[in-house]
Amino acid sequence: MSTSPQESVRRQNLAALLRYVHVRGATSRAELTTRLGLNRSTIGALTADLATAGLIDEGVPHETGRAGRPSIVVTPRSSSVYGYALSLELDRLRAARIGLGGKVLDTRTAERPPGPDTAPTVRALAALVAGMHATAPAGAMFVGSAIAVSASVRHHLGWTDETIASPLASALAPHLGARSPIVGGLADLAALAEHTRGAATGADNVIFVHGDAGISAGIIAGGRRITGYGGHGGEVGHMVVNPGGRLCGCGSRGCWEAEIGERPLLRLAGRPVPTAGAAVVTAVQHARGGDPDALAAVLHAADWLGFGVANLVNIFNPTVVVFGGTLRELYLIAPAPVHRRLESMALAACRDHVALHTPDLGDDAPLVGAAELAFESLLADPLSR
Amino acid sequence: MSTSPQESVRRQNLAALLRYVHVRGATSRAELTTRLGLNRSTIGALTADLATAGLIDEGVPHETGRAGRPSIVVTPRSSSVYGYALSLELDRLRAARIGLGGKVLDTRTAERPPGPDTAPTVRALAALVAGMHATAPAGAMFVGSAIAVSASVRHHLGWTDETIASPLASALAPHLGARSPIVGGLADLAALAEHTRGAATGADNVIFVHGDAGISAGIIAGGRRITGYGGHGGEVGHMVVNPGGRLCGCGSRGCWEAEIGERPLLRLAGRPVPTAGAAVVTAVQHARGGDPDALAAVLHAADWLGFGVANLVNIFNPTVVVFGGTLRELYLIAPAPVHRRLESMALAACRDHVALHTPDLGDDAPLVGAAELAFESLLADPLSR
Question: Which domains does chain B have, with CATH numbers?
Answer without folding.
Answer: 5-64+71-76 (1.10.10.10), 82-187+365-380 (3.30.420.40), 201-358 (3.30.420.40)
